[in-house]
Amino acid sequence: MLTDITNRLPPDFVMIDIRTKVVEPPTPYVIFFLQEIERINGIIGEIRRALAELELGLSGALNISDLMDALITNLSSNTVPPLWLKMCGQIGPTGTYNRKNMANWYIDLLDRYKQLKGVVENNLMAPPSVWLSGLFNPMGYVTACLQVTARAKSLPLDSMKVSTDLTAMEPKDVAAQPAEGTYVHGLYMEGARWDKAAGCIAQSNPKVLHTLMPVVHIVGVTADKVVTEGMYTCPVYMTTIRGPTFTFAAGLVTKEPSSVWVLAAVALVMQPDQ
Predict the structure, then answer these.
(1) Where does 129-274 sit in CATH, by number?
(2) What is the tally of helices (H) and strands (E) in the chain?
(3) Which one-letter DSSP state was computed for residue 128?
């Protein structure tokens, strides 16, 4: 496992080269993506350092320390080391927010890197639809969207609210970001499902825990323009561990009273357990 992880570990992003692509003044989106790139650089660097140290320990060049012994236990049990989770923001005061095993977590990390690599190659411009689940700080991206809208309309940021519109598109169908707001994908509905034909929330199909949502159009609006009638205010969480992973609330069209979905604990999650 150590060899497999090391061989698939991508190279660090060269921040000096990336910052030369920044056009002054940088937009909130550019600042956000720079922060994401710096964070994944730190995670990749720590993984590379820890694995290289462990390899020396296993070969007898170094004494096995307590940290190296703990890493051996994590790798052999297919669990993610706590330090790596902490650097990803997946450990907090209430414990760990990750339920993926090491193999799935590492695949997820490589996919996050792939999205950021595409951003770098596109001169720090967002892809046509952003994989929101693949961001370390998804609320930071949503806030950047609100900042851009607030600046464009000369409105105070604290007056902006998140408005969501479910499209009928899949990520591959999106050609470019919208003129206002942003397209995101990667959300799953738990406790119910999204009926694409009717364009509203519906009861879950038997034995289907999570259903993938279509592309979501997030727009910043003022509080007086937030539509509440015929809508269910659906909480969005980063993982199935709710509470501390809350990100924002999405308004979803419903033909049933909102209380039906409240009692069913319907929510959107960015990452299922597997």
Answers:
(1) 3.10.490.20
(2) 8, 13
(3) S
